Amino acid sequence: MSLKKTEIECRFRRSVESYEENAHIQKKIVKHLVELLEHYCPLEINRILEIGCGTGLLSEQLKARWSSSELWLNDLVDAMCIKAASRCGITAQYCLPGDIEKLQLVEIFSLVASTSTFQWIEHPLETFGYLSEHISSGGWLIFSSFGKDNCRELKAITGNGLTYHSLSEMEEILSRYFEVLHTEEEIYTLDFNHPLDILQHIKKTGVNAMSSHKTWTRGRLNAFTREYAIRFLKDGRYPLTYHPQYFICRKL
After folding, report:
1. 219, exposed or middle or buried, with CB in 10 Å at 0-12, 13-18, 19+?
2. The pTM is what?
3. Which of 85, 220, 230, 234 would be 90's cystine partner, CB 3.0–4.6 Å?
4. SS3 of 83, please?
């Protein structure tokens, strides 16, 4: 596992218990992705893989809609996998913990679904190609990720953040292996009372894409607070932008 993925695993492992209470935008994203699943996917689905299952927000919905289907759960953090499996009444044999870019899949799936995970992938072209090999002909890849404006305030101040792709860039990658039937994107803004509340929010959800190599000294925190106020304070509130994207793809 790369150093970057090791850091990601540590962040999410620390947020296992705090994630769901603070994942306000992620819950909205799951709700909309489920609406897309219900619109596009047939009622008969043989076997499902969820990538980045987290605490089971989407897993629970997948299990409810396709109760007779096999539901396999993957997450970088084994504790997340176990938590989601327990939530859905799934035995541990259907948990596939580990980095999806390194995981050796055996089964063929009718549906691969994911929310708020693929932005972490380091090699999207190779990963989507590998996943396509484990999706049946006519099967589905349906997921959400994040676009270029995601957490833009943090990146503007710290200079650190993930490399996000535009809808067209993602569609170009996906079209190598899938028919891309639908794409869309949204902008959500969460407002906070103080910039330090934003740091607490991203810590509790594990989604902090800022470099962990620098220590948050009192001086750095004060500078961060001042800069956030100068650049983004509006009507006494401090915004944080989320930029979810949605993709409906069918195996060629």
Report:
1. exposed
2. 0.92
3. 85
4. helix
